Amino acid sequence: MQIRVRGALAAASLVSLFALAGCESPAPYAPLAGHATGYTDERLGANRWRVTFIGNSVTSRRTVEDYLLLRAAQVTQQSGYRWFVFDTRDTQAHTAYHTDFEGWPGFHRPFGWYWHDWDYADTYSTTRYEAYAEIVLLTPEQARNEPRAVDANDIIAHLTPPPPPPPSH
After folding, report:
1. What is the DSSP letter of 116?
2. Distance between CA atoms of 28 and 163, rounded to whole angstroms?
3. At what angle do helices 61-78 and 152-159 cross, to 10 degrees?
């Protein structure tokens, strides 16, 4: 009987874990304001900006870096420029480890009561990525002489995500 209960608790724990994981979707391409994910940008000088994108645990590193690149291109266009170059750029991984316990401590061993004597424990990790960059906006003359120059129009044409689907009723 005890084995059946333990098995049922373990199965219920896994089902709830998958249900919760299924509820989360990748971070949308949207401003960070008031949210845990999204982009920010800050003007640092006449032609210099800091841009960031923060994803959640189900947003891939590639998507986070693509969204950073897209935001850099949009900031470039919105500032009246077409070309930019990365001055600094980095992506950081933030990994958290979680343990879910099932069952209760008890007198399971012949030598006494132990608070750490759990029937079942499941440990897993989640990683979320945060990318940031400082960009320098370039005039057409500067862009011609800079081999690392990025064309904002090309980036926007290739990386703009499709609009979110309409809500279902």
Report:
1. T
2. 10
3. 130
Longest dimension (CA), the chain: 81
d(C-alpha 72, C-alpha 39), whole Å: 10
Sign of CA dihedral 150, 156, 161, 164: positive
Tell whether pTM > 0.85: no
Written as six digits, the tokens of 95 are 């990994």
Tens digit of pLDDT for each residue in 48-94? 999 999 999 999 999 999 999 999 999 999 999 999 999 999 999 99
Burial string for 131-160 (b: 16+ CB within 10 Å, else e) reads: bbbbbbbbeeeebeeeeebbebeebeeeee
